[in-house]
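Newbie here. two chains, one complex. Structure please?
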Amino acid sequence: GAVVSQHPSWVICKSGTSVKIECRSLDFQATTMFWYRQFPKQSLMLMATSNEGSKATYEQGVEKDKFLINHASLTLSTLTVTSAHPEDSSFYICSARGDTLNQPQHFGDGTRLSIL
Amino acid sequence: GQQVMQIPQYQHVQEGEDFTTYCNSSTTLSNIQWYKQRPGGHPVFLIQLVKSGEVKKQKRLTFQFGEAKKNSSLHITATQTTDVGTYFCAGANDMRFGAGTRLTVKP
């Protein structure tokens, strides 16, 4: 089955640090990748949708200068949390989908980010 | 964008009892997908419904898509402890998830 690798799994860093999270589709071409944020016992909140080779589309209320997304290839998208602060601590999870709406999303294992 | 509402938020059942979660959209959906997230895990795709009135079954799970393509349901017959987790629906148009229904099963 389709596999999505997300790295790192855990990040603990100081306030003010920028953190990069990678999302890779290992055995299929991901035309579209999604980035979500999930708080404990809550649903997945869509942050942005990225299509290969174009700028990401951010959801309302998500700062694009704060959460930089790059989707430079059909197998890799990155999310960079710039100048992270404690309120950015959360579980970030990516998903990847092929080239049609009728294809399911395949999720990475998520990244737990803790900012001290 | 579309709004996907999901109820109930929580459901606690005795093992062997049935369980149903409902998903409602403010707009017509081209299709809808269901996912399950186990505690500590990531969402895993269960099924996609595309056609109006469609019903699909996976063993003890029955998925329905409403005639107007604005609502959907997931029904689990005779729950087992392995069914524990949070069940999410998502409109495939823009992949916004419902709030999810957290199912706990008492052995």
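Moderator note: The CA atoms of residues 47 and 62 of chain A lie 6 Å apart. The mean pLDDT of chain A is 91. Thread marked as resolved.
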